[in-house]
Amino acid sequence: MRLFSNAVVRTFAPRAASNTPASNTSDPSTSNSDTSAESVDLTRPAPDAILVDGETIVAVGTRAELLDIAAAQSSTTVALASAGGVGATTVIPGLEIDEVDCSGQVILPGFVDGHIHSIMYADSLTDLDLSQTKSLAEAVAAIRDRADSLPVGTWVVGSGWDLNKWEDPSYPDRALLDAEVPDHPVAMWSLDLHTLWVNAHALEIAGIDETTPDPAGGGFVRDDDGTLTGLVREDATDLVARFIPEPSREEQVERLATTQELFLSQGLTGIHDFDGISATLGWNDLHEAGRQDMRVTLYLRSPEVPWAIETGWHTGDGDDWLQCGGLKLFSDGALGSHTSHMSSPFPETDGETENFGIAQMTEDELFDQAHIATEAGISVAIHAIGDQANHHVLAVYERLRDITRAAEEKFDRPMRHRVEHAQFIQPSDVVRFAELGVLASMQPRHCISDLHLLHLIDESAQLAAYAWPDLLDAGANVVFGSDGPVEPANPFAAIYAAMTRANISGDVSTTFQPHRRLSAVEAIRLHTQGPAFAAGLDGRRGYLAPGMDADFIVVDTDPCAAEGLDTETLTTEAAAEMSDPNASPTPTDGLLGYASEEALFAHAEAIRDTRVALTVVGGEIKYRA
Prior knowledge:
Elements: E1 2-5, E2 8-9, E3 49-53, E4 56-61, H1 63-72, E5 89-92, E6 97-101, E7 106-109, E8 111-116, H2 118-124, E9 128-129, H3 136-148, E10 156-161, H4 174-180, E11 186-190, E12 195-198, H5 200-206, E13 218-222, E14 228-234, H6 238-241, H7 249-265, E15 268-273, H8 276-288, E16 295-301, H9 305-311, E17 322-330, H10 363-375, E18 380-384, H11 387-399, H12 401-411, E19 418-421, E20 424-425, H13 427-436, E21 439-442, H14 444-449, E22 464-465, H15 468-473, E23 478-480, H16 491-500, H17 520-534, E24 552-555, H18 572-579, H19 597-608, E25 612-617, E26 620-624
Parallel strand pairs: 1-6, 2-7, 8-15, 9-10, 10-11, 15-16, 16-17, 17-18, 18-19, 19-21, 21-23
Antiparallel strand pairs: 1-3, 3-4, 5-6, 7-24, 11-12, 12-14, 13-14, 20-22, 24-25, 25-26
């Protein structure tokens, strides 16, 4: 056994599962998964220790109580020798127990990123990063510098450019690339990964010219004369990307291992991975090599469905470390690329007129593919950012209801369909998420990264934008993640975003719709219990209680108590909000019960800057600062 002690344990357990240490034989399969009843009660002393046996939590309570439990299961008892320093371990021979000293820091349930791209993230750590460039010229200069370091003819690959942040927010084209980097094929992904900026050399290798037709769900941008500009959008990017050399399988595994270490250092004990077969191969290789240190739920891409059906892939299959997830489909594009499918047109840009975005698949096409997958026991997750895309996807799921029920009975498991992103929703569609039992998989960082883009949205449409509390109030299930590498994976920065809806630097004046803020307690729940529910693991993961998987983190900031304050210095409403998350998460003044914006931001910024000391997965320390 292993005892993690000298800590402040925030269990986030539903009241029905918040047992005393003596109740250590509870059956997690019968625990109440109604996360609306979670308890974070600051009026009582928090537990200070967790007892783990193998990969499972035995009990949560005081150190003395848990030592008694351990002693009851051992023939001998002995005094514990002293241990010093965070993470220091002492062996208690008579009890056959290791004690890990958490040095008075805070234990939280392990965070799970509900939507991330591990292979793309791994590649982004080595490819050229254009996210900090402030102009087209600066971006081209960075590309030229990278090209100069590579052999002639080598692909120059990168990502992160965002014309909306450039001094002159005009679309780039291939002219400067052709002039400055003629001897290398160049492929630069936009920040949202929905547009590819390439030069003539790359187009030539891909066999694309002015006569190449636009594929369904994508397009090649042309000027008034019909000449290719070098911008490739949505599904058309596949026609270029398939020519970009991939790292060897061995190199990709090493990149993935490095990325895994980064995720663990940020408090992630698991991810829902949307990189399809490439991620499946990578994680399988790590798993077989004994190097997988976090839990992964894998999602398929559309071309992989025949293979998945043939090999018997069913959502929920797998083991405790690698789980089969669902199928990812695309309804539209992204806001920054002006390709999210909207009910109102984007403002005219560079001659664009009546641009409502791109419907990558029609409603009938989405239904047909979702139907095939669901009948085969594969749940569906559909990317939808624009309000019209969300409207169509909800219609698909409504048509799929009887098929879903039949699949659940046939395969004896829940089929929890999802909408990925759900950034803009027509007001009448908010309640439909709850009525249809569709999960909203959302990314708080998108809200604050998109602050400079929100002028593109027609205010008269009165859309529910990044409307996490609206969906929760309607009774829908919400899952938080990052969409990394589009956004950084750090979940503490995402909690800050959910609490403030202001830019990452803490500028109060940038706040967008403060009435839609969420408390830290609620944001953490959506990073822990939300992904567990989405994966059908709500009886095993997402909070800390006897019988649950021993996945948790030790951090230096208590997100359940305001930095430098105690509950007496908060307003009555704030104390109620912290001690009873059943209270409304979004008071109309947007202060979440804090006495002022300054108090709210002080707490949110402290959470944003949280440092992880230990990450424990399956009862083992997988990361130590």
